[in-house]
Amino acid sequence: MSAALPGNRALPASQYDLATYWGRVKHAAEISDPRMLLISKKGLEDSKELIASYKLGKVAHMSPELWHAKKVVDATIHPDTGEAVMLPFRMSSFVLSNLIVTAGMLTPGLGTTGTLLWQITNQSLNVAINNANANKSTPLSTSKIVQSYLLAVGAVVLRRPGSELSRPPPQGRVSRAGALNVFLMRGEEIRMGIDVYPALSAEEKAAGKSEADVPSLGKSRKAATIAVSETALSRVLNSSPVMVIPALALVRLQKMNWLKNSPRLVLPVNLGLILTTSLAALPFA
Q1: CA neighbours within 13 Å on the CB side: how many for 245?
Q2: Which has the least CB within 10 A, 23, 44, 57, 274?
């Protein structure tokens, strides 16, 4: 993210205490803030220039403007490549991108073909998000990406003989599919390992040393396994409340007269519940 920008002065990792769970939740909420999708190319460049000014020592202290600039960069730029992640696959777009797919999967009367196409779309989106945000110190070849994509989609689409494809998948299957997708798309990281860097001491940070100045200690398969496993777990933790809470809330709402008298409102109300739950649950995962 900011490591790719010029300057040797270390930028604070976050305005929140990342040593605490609540601090990490607040930090994740910033990165996944959908409002970051409204930032223009000029806004991104201005944010990068402001951060570079701090790292070059032209700005003495962190300010609200600098924290906002860091938020923009963290939500947009891939930390390994220094390039902007494609908009639909950024974490700030995670909820909205998935909401579109959810709306499609909840459309009444889809039938087998419609359900199949939307499940393929869902897994294709998951593959794209996982690949776009993967650790780039172990790059995947095009053939590996295609192979992993076909395995990820095939593992979810294929059913046991006699099972009904048109029936909505249960929460457990959705969670397993999301976790499997992560392992398939980022399995190369586990096989090859990812770069590991030493943490900067307080003295090094005070001296103006940044993470960009620290050489890699080498590649670690264990670190990759932990990172990918935690990402897969987050997919399960994130999907669980989204699959459960809106459904329970909708059951109660459907008993109310205003929704009984307006059945066309069921789908938009359901999507609203899913959107609200997703926005609230994502940072905690």
Answers
A1: 17
A2: 57
Query: How far apart (Å, rounded) are the C-alpha atoms in residues 155 and 123?
Result: 10
DSSP 199: P
**Mean pLDDT confidence for 149-157:** 73
Residue pair 276/270 in contact by the 8 Å Cβ criterion: no
Q: Sign of dihedral through CA atoms 66, 72, 74, 76?
A: negative
Asked if residue 75 lies in contact with residue 44, where contact means CB atoms within 8 angstroms, the answer is no
- pLDDT at 152 > cutoff 50: yes
What lies within 8 Å, CB to CB, of 54 at 6+ separation is: 7, 9, 11, 62, 66
Q: List % helix, strand, coil for the chain (3-state, nearest 5).
A: 65, 5, 30
pLDDT tier, 165 (very low <50, low <70, confident <90, very high otherwise) = low
Top-confidence residue, 281 or 208: 281
* Rounded Cα–Cα distance for residues 245 and 260 (Å): 20
CA distances 243 to 119, 236, 239, 271, Å, are 15, 10, 6, 12
* Count of CA atoms in the C-beta half-sphere (13 A) of 11: 28
Q: pTM, whole model, 2 decimals? A: 0.74
For CA atoms 68, 70, 71, 72, give the dihedral sign: positive
Calculate the alpha carbon distances from 122 to 42, 45, 62, 147, 158 in Å. Answer: 32, 32, 40, 17, 14
57-88 per-position pLDDT tens digit: 898 889 999 999 999 999 999 888 888 999 99
Task: Report residue 84: phi and psi, to 5°.
Answer: -70, 135
**What pLDDT shows up at residue 284?**
85
